[in-house]
Design goal:
Layout: H1 7-19, E1 24-25, H2 49-52, E2 62-70, E3 87-95, H3 101-115, E4 123-128, H4 132-142, E5 149-152, H5 154-157, E6 158-160, E7 167-169, E8 171-175
Parallel strand pairs: 1-2, 4-5
Antiparallel strand pairs: 2-3, 4-8, 6-7
Helix pairs in contact: 3-4
Length: about 180
Amino acid sequence: MSTPLNGAQIRQTFLDFYAARGHQILPSASLVPEDPTVLLTIAGMLQFKPIFLGQRQAEVSRATTSQKCIRTNDIENVGRTARHHTFFEMLGNFSFGDYFKDKAIAWAWELSTQVFGLPPERLVVSVFREDDEAFAIWRDQIGIPAHRIQRMDEADNFWVSGPTGPCGPCSEIYYDFHPEQG
């Protein structure tokens, strides 16, 4: 895409991309969640937490959402970085036992490079430092050179929903605004 997209266009493009890959588009859950362990909805996965914990069966095998969120878990970063805001919409795609890292990573790359048109040479990815499987997918299946895959620790690439609950390694795609700096 050559023309810059506004937020509504980015949201719709994301949802349409995953709907075309068999995901059901589900509405944003309430900002005041049914989950008694959190005060406000802080992540896109929160409405699916009972499914991830095995407390409820998923009604669909694939879902995509644009979840309205209020940041409380790392509010100290609001205003300190360009990526942290108090209110935001978290775009997400979810698999409930249907696919795993290989498809999730391939689709994230396809969406970023082919649909949104981000130049692959400007993208850097991160994985949790012990996640050799994700590292191998990025390097061997997607073709990212190893020097552009950053292994990060728990603070950056291990997602938790609190002291107890669903958690696990994550992977992120970053746009390098200053490639000349290495």
